[in-house]
Amino acid sequence: MKVFVTGATGAIGGHAVPALVQAGHTVSALARTPDKAAALAAHGAVPVSVSLFDSTALAAAFAGHDAVINLATAMPSTSQFVIRRAWRATERVRIDGSAAVVDAALQAGVGRVVQESVAMLYRDHGASWIDEDAPVDNYPATVGNHAAEASARRFAAAGGTRVTMRLGLFYGPGARHSEQMLALARRHLGLVLGPPDSYLSSIHVADAGTAVVAALHAPAGTFNIVDDDPMTKRDYSDALAAAADATPWIRLPGRVGLLLGDRLTSLTRSLRVSNARFRAATEWAPRYPSAREGWKATAAR
Ligand SMILES: NC(=O)c1ccc[n+]([C@@H]2O[C@H](COP(=O)([O-])OP(=O)(O)OC[C@H]3O[C@@H](n4cnc5c(N)ncnc54)[C@H](OP(=O)(O)O)[C@@H]3O)[C@@H](O)[C@H]2O)c1
């Protein structure tokens, strides 16, 4: 296939682009600087300089492509994560960016749109498994995700094939937040995001990259992209500590994180998310079935 990738230089994009090229696809990718263009070319992609918000220019860039993969985000840094206004950049990218991508894909006659979203949309389900039919929530951090998912549905309503990827919490090489989590673990600080027995569903970015390739052949729909074995926050913190080879002297914030309410709920809520539907619909399987293996490999790197 001939595919166009936005967000190609990010945490997932950095793994998805080489995986797409290796799978034999012809890849064009949005590059915002000459350095990023050179990095993409080194991965075997054709860098394209175009604005994510200019649907006319995007349509010209998308012409002749079979699919568009929209992975662009602009998340707040860890220190700004609980500050409401720090989410404006990613909201613009997810709201206006995804709308422009869909307008352009329709204009250019592209057949498929793959849209990044998150599994943190789901309501807290305690220890119950969550599939794609489970109810979702609207809280401030999800405004952009709901809009991006609506853009993908709009593409489908106009006759295109849309695949929405609800990704779990990223970790691994190139995922900025996770590198900070590992650094904290090496200093004997165990990060427990919410009640210790609540669940966290994550995905190694290399597996998110191969899932992007599989999404090109998936049936239309919404799919959870997480590993096979969501863990309790306590077990997750232990896996991180084992990978960092450092016993946690203190575990934070635990239940106290609940006091931050909506500001941290995407991380404190209990999400035991199932990837069964995507695995059944495609040949995809995560190389790291759980964060135990994934964090070990990440720390080793
Ligand atoms: N599900 C999750 O857990 C999840 C989701 C998203 C992010 N994160 C975490 O948050 C960290 C930082 O996130 P991030 O959002 O900055 O993601 P990122 O994965 O580092 O990069 C996002 C991508 O979007 C592109 N982009 C951003 N703003 C754009 C714009 N205005 N126009 C065109 N392209 C644009 C970036 O291009 P440039 O390279 O040119 O900046 C980059 O390719 C990540 O490393 C990851 O750890 C986690």
In short:
The chain is an alpha/beta fold and 301 residues long.
Describe the structure.
This protein is 39% helix and 20% strand. Helix 6 crosses helix 8. Strand 1, helix 1 (13-22) and strand 2 (26-30) form a beta-alpha-beta unit. The mean pLDDT is 96. It is of the alpha/beta class. The protein has a seven-stranded parallel beta sheet with strand order 3-2-1-4-5-7-12, sandwiched between helices. The protein has a two-stranded parallel ribbon with strand order 6-15. It has a single domain (2-175, 203-227, 272-288), classed as 3-Layer(aba) Sandwich (Rossmann fold). The chain has helices spanning 13-22, 34-42, 55-62, 88-108, 143-157, 176-186, 205-215, 233-244, 265-268, 276-281, 291-300, and strands at residues 2-6, 26-30, 46-48, 67-70, 112-118, 129-130, 161-167, 169-171, 189-193, 199-200, 202-204, 221-225, 231-232, 250-254, 272-273. It has eleven helices and 15 strands. The protein is globular, with a radius of gyration of 18 Å. Bound molecules: NADP nicotinamide-adenine-dinucleotide phosphate.
Bound molecules: NADP nicotinamide-adenine-dinucleotide phosphate
Assigned CATH superfamily:
NAD(P)-binding Rossmann-like Domain
Percent in strands: 15-25%
- Span between N and C termini? 32 Å
